[in-house]
ABC-2 type transport system ATP-binding protein (Actinokineospora iranica), 305 residues
Amino acid sequence: MIPAIRVTDLVVRHGDTVAVNGVSLSVGPGRIVALLGPNGAGKSTLLSVVTTAAAPGSGRVEVFGVDTAVDPVRARTHIGVVFQEQTLDQDLSVERNLWFHARLFGMGRPAARERIDEVLRQFGLADRRRSLVRELSGGLARRVEVARALLHRPRLLVLDEPTSGLDPSVRRALWNDLRVLRADHGLTVLYATHYLQEAEFADEVVIVHSGRIARNGSPAELKAGLTGAAALVVATEDDDAALGQLRVAGFDARMDAAGLAVFCARPERHVAEVARAITVPVRTMSVREPSMDDVYFATTDVVGT
Ligand SMILES: Nc1ncnc2c1ncn2[C@@H]1O[C@H](COP(=O)(O)OP(=O)(O)OP(=O)(O)O)[C@@H](O)[C@H]1O
């Protein structure tokens, strides 16, 4: 099976800065992949090469088997892009913006008209078709951008921080749309985000740091691979006394933001043992699994030092 995206030993420089430093990555069709990483990690640069906006310094990028450096025009037929900054023409209507895109991708008039009607309906924008973009809310304008990106029926949608500045309900609606598109059309989605909880929607998370892939895997794999973050969180009548008792019993117990945390690899297996070690009354005990935040900070801190 041809991967939707294959990146091989990619290096990209901006002047003296090595923005992408030897990245290799393969994304299967229909997968949803999140790119995480601190500012300046190289996410946008990587996305710009995948979308043919920038050329690789060395290495190779293929989109559905098409080498983006050899045949960028053909590669672009497979790719829809939603850029970090809004790129709609503010003084044109929603419909006109879509029309220009359709013409840019060589769609004939009848086909363009039909497809524009279809995406406007699909994204709930039919009643806004004649609205000027500058009259739209940020959330609606984003919807128009996603609709535009999908107009030429690409198989891969690339989004660079698509939800930044959008309110939580608009963000949730966008992710629902993308999941439906994947389910109905097998769309492959690659997106960069700084909202760590948005990485939970992905089949695979790729954490980029200093131009390299620092860690990648499914959200569950990344969390399971994290040692030292899972804990039993205990609330007692006297947490200070309980802390001392747990330490005497040999547990790695600490006070943190959640309260008294007992760190252990499989917390659910230690409930009885922890309860036995504490003589003060226990109010509640709960298992805390590692979060995407734990994975992110463990990865970027370790790599950054
Ligand atoms: N046009 C440019 N000219 C010079 N340096 C650049 C240019 N674009 C990016 N860089 C540098 O390349 C590195 C990677 O930047 P890039 O924008 O790809 O990171 P990013 O992970 O997308 O960051 P952010 O989360 O802030 O968008 C950074 O050191 C950045 O300063």
About this structure: The mean pLDDT is 93. Residues 14-15, 17, 19, 37, 39-45 surround adenosine-5'-triphosphate (CB under 6 Å). The domain at 230-289 is CATH 3.30.70 (Alpha-Beta Plaits).
